[in-house]
Amino acid sequence: MAGQSRLLLPLRTVTAKTILLTDYRARRPVPVAASDLIAPSGQLADTRGRMLHDLRISVTDRCNFRCVYCMPKEVFGKDYPYLPHDALLSFEEIVRLARLFVAHGVEKIRLTGGEPLLRKNIETLVARLAELRTPSGRPLDLTLTTNASLLARKARALADAGLNRVTVSLDALDDTVFRRMNDVDFAVADVLHGIDAAAEAGLGPIKVNMVVKKGLNDDQIEPMAEHFRHSGHTLRFIEYMDVGASNGWKMDEVVPSADILRRLGARWPLETLEPHYTGEVAQRWRYRDGGGEVGVISSVTQAFCSSCTRARLSTEGQLYLCLFADQGYDLRTLLRGGASDDQLATAIARIWQARTDNYSERRSADTPRSGRIEMSYIGG
Asked: Rounded distance, CA 24 to CA 315, Å?
C-alpha cells in the first residue's frame, strides 16, 4: 500500500526459534479520505453484517512483565525502542475518538496496554471516558485489563473515577510457575492482593484470564479452578494464540478449550450459560454445585470471527480491525492534521464498513505471521 514503510528489526532467537520481527509501528497506511460525510447513526455494520460494539484502547506499549507468550525478554530487552511520549495519543485525543466511536454504536470500552496502569494519571482518562453516553443516553461499560502489579494502590482511585470492572491476567497459582511465566520474579500473592483490593473497591465482577500453554502451565488448570471457585470471580482459560511473531507460537503448544472443559467437568460437573451479549468471545459455563462461573476463549480451535464486534485503537492512534491484523489505519494524522469531527466520524465509518477480517477462520499451522501486530502493542 502506498504510504507504508517497513522496518525490519534484528533477528532475535527465542527458545531456539529464529524470528524476524517487523516494526509494525513504522506502517502508515494513507487514511481513508473523508469527502462525502457519513453521519453516525448508532448502527455501523461491516461487510459481514458485524456491528461495531466494542472498542479496545491501548494506552501504552510498555509493560513491567515479560510474559513468554506476549513480551519475551529475549525480544523486549532493556534496549527495546518503545514509542516516545509525543507519539502516544493524548487523553484529549483518546476521548475525542472514543466519543465518535460511541456515536457509531460502541457501548463497551476496554483500556489495555502494555500494562495500562503504567500510563501516568490513567484515572484522569477513566473519568473523562466515564462521562460519555451512548446515543440512547446510557453510560458505557468501561473496563480495564491489567496484570495487577499496580492494582492494589490504584483500585480505589479507578473506581472513584468511574471504572466499572477489571480483568486480571494470572497464568498460574503455583508461584514458581508464575514467576517463570512473567519472567520478572513477580509473586502470585501480589496479584491476589490486587484482586482483593479491586473487589473491595467495587470493580467487580472480576474476570481472571489464564493463558494456557502446553508444557508450561497446563498443570495449573485444576489448581486455578479450585482457587477461584466460590470466590465470586470468573476464571477464563484462553487458548495460547499466534498473536504477532515474537512468541515463537506453535500449534502443538495449544491446549484446546474442549480438553480444558473435559478436565474441569471430570472433577466438577458443568452446565452451559447463555452469552451476555452478541459477540461475547468467552463461552460461559457454571459449576452445577453452585461454585460459580468459568469460561473459555477458543480463538484457535473455535473461531468466533463471524460475531466479532471489536475495533482496536493502538497507543499512537492506529485503528486495527482484528487482533491478528498486519496493518492499521492512521487516525492520528487526521486528528493532528485538523480534521473535523464529521471527517473523523466518516473515516471511522468507511474503515469499518469495508472490514472483511476473519483470520481465525483461515488459520493453519503454516499461516505466515511476520508483519502482524504484537499483543503487547495492541492489547489482548
From this structure: 13
Residues 6 or more apart whose Cβ sits within 8 Å of residue 176: none
Residue 126, all three cell numbers:
477513566
Q: Where are the domains of the chain?
A: 7-378
- Each residue's pLDDT tens digit, 30-81: 456 556 899 999 999 999 999 999 999 999 999 999 988 888 888 888 888 9
| Grid cell listed for 369 | 505471521
SS (H, E, C) 192-206: HHHHHHHHHHCCCCC
Residue the block writes with cell 477462520: 361
SS (H, E, C) 16-84: CEEEEEEEHHHCCCCCCCCCCCCCCCCCCECCCCCECCEEEEECCCCCCCCCCCCCCCCCCCCCCCCCC
**pTM reported for the whole predicted model:** 0.88
User: Using an 8 Å Cβ cutoff, are 63 and 379 in contact?
Assistant: no
Nearest-angstrom CA–CA distance, 62 and 80 = 10
Q: How far apart are the first and last CA of the chain?
A: 26
Distance CA 325, CA 231 (A): 36
> What are the residues whose beta carbons fall under 8 Å from the beta carbon of 169, sequence distance 6 or more?
67, 145, 146, 147, 148, 208, 209, 210, 211, 380
Pick the CATH number of 7-378 from 3.40.50.10380, 3.90.170.10, 3.20.20.70, 3.30.420.40: 3.20.20.70
Tell which residue, 296, 176, 301, 302, has the closest CA to residue 225: 296
